[in-house]
Amino acid sequence: MKKLKRSARLVELTQFLLARPHSLIPLTTFAERYGAAKSSISEDLAIIKEVFEEEGMGELQTLAGAAGGVKYIPRVSNERALGIINDLCVKLEEPGRILPGGYLYMSDLLGKPHLVNEIGDIFATIFGGQNIDVVMTVETKGIPIAYATGAKLNLPVVLVRRDHQVTEGSAVSINYVSGSNKSLHTMTLSRRAMKEKSRVLIVDDFMKAGGTVRGMIDLLAEFDAEVAGVGVLLDSGTVDSEERLFEDYVSLVTLETVDPKSRAIGVKPGNYFEK
Amino acid sequence: MKKLKRSARLVELTQFLLARPHSLIPLTTFAERYGAAKSSISEDLAIIKEVFEEEGMGELQTLAGAAGGVKYIPRVSNERALGIINDLCVKLEEPGRILPGGYLYMSDLLGKPHLVNEIGDIFATIFGGQNIDVVMTVETKGIPIAYATGAKLNLPVVLVRRDHQVTEGSAVSINYVSGSNKSLHTMTLSRRAMKEKSRVLIVDDFMKAGGTVRGMIDLLAEFDAEVAGVGVLLDSGTVDSEERLFEDYVSLVTLETVDPKSRAIGVKPGNYFEK
């Protein structure tokens, strides 16, 4: 790459770091890439660090020494998270979302890549400090959230399927009981999908009693893997605590009431801010 | 926001533009945001434009006049696209991917958010100039590619389901015949998912004879919508042309041979570079 001036270097460095979250990049990489002295690169990084922190975009960690370098840790400030979650609450309360049976239509919101990426940013913020090897979800609606989170944590995503697919090779299947209506379901995961002893972040779009999450945890046991965290976009606040099959999770929004008669939906920010 | 120096402004502007592809942003937005003169912002943008172009990251379009502003159009250079696709070819030819029945395991590759985002960048490059309202895919494995593409084109994503879900409200279902083994399947799309007359980019992970894509196009007709383009990660080069149900598509990689006996897989870059 040709030698760049500081101004151009700042642009290049910014995009390079944003595209590689949670990756340690040695200063020599930049020094060689831009034909600049390490001291100049350090000055550039100090400018970027200040802007990222001021903007509530996250942290630039610098590690000194031979094995050192710089690492971009995306992090959403509480203020920005609250803004995103409040917007989501307003949209979720639109009366037109109520479906027969008291279900909530939210595919339009989950269909907005920009919003889904913001949700991923929030999960990456709360789970970014933990020791995690892989992000897991079960098809279908949690998939974009899992990828958005995985992208920001620089982690692979593993998809649990409802049925065994020929394109997944040999697989492990389990049965699980849905907590809300006690019906029996199957989920299956390719044997190749995960190494033993993996530490797994489970992500999903919605959790009622937690039967699906419980099922994923049972599936993890078959892989000798363990759960490192659970994040759901929306949880239901109407479940009795004795009915709840899983307690230790992070939710961004809590659904309090859905009344098909009056077409009223009540939501509030989830337990994210209590964590 | 507090008044920023040029160096800090360049960092901020770069991240702001990267986060908002295909969005027209008036110069006054930046001028107010950074407490700077429009002429200074224009100079900043010229620097960013040069770096983006030099790096093969895309274009910064500036529109003059009262309704003017700047728009970041992500675009992957042919050189970078070839690098990504060649890497993909090498990985796809690993003999361990062959599954019983001659299927190819690729969930590990589709599970890498960084790679999936690069695939989205390539689709956004080839379809970015077209008039598209929405990106569509059918569950499951095409979903991350659809979101990566939608994010870079600043477009919503619509998911076609295999079964009608209670969380989707009233839906339109069709039957379609898979081109390769002539079996009958169903696909369904929520009535709320798409406006009439929408122009739709169809994206998927794999296409053999094209039965699934054909099905999605039939489904579009029910919504009075039309197909604006079709992009698949992998297509099969072993399908006879009279067997093929759909011809006009872009593929990144073409699967030429899968021989379970010798465990040999042959792939080559798809028709992307011919488009």
Shape of chain A: globular
Q: Fill in the CATH topology of the largest domain in chain A.
A: Rossmann fold
Query: Roughly how many Å apart are the termini of chain A?
Result: 45 Å
- The number of distinct structural domains of chain A comes to 2
- State the helix count of chain A: 8
CATH class of the largest domain in chain A reads: Alpha Beta
CATH architecture of the largest domain in chain A: 3-Layer(aba) Sandwich
- Please compute the radius of gyration of chain A using only Cα atoms: 21 Å
Report the helical percentage of chain A.
25-40%
Structural category of chain A is alpha/beta
Biggest sheet of chain A, strands in spatial order? Answer: 6-5-9-10-11-12
The run of helices and strands of chain A is: HHHEEHEEHHEHEEEEHEEE
**Which pair has the most extensive contact?**
A-B, 57 and 57 residues
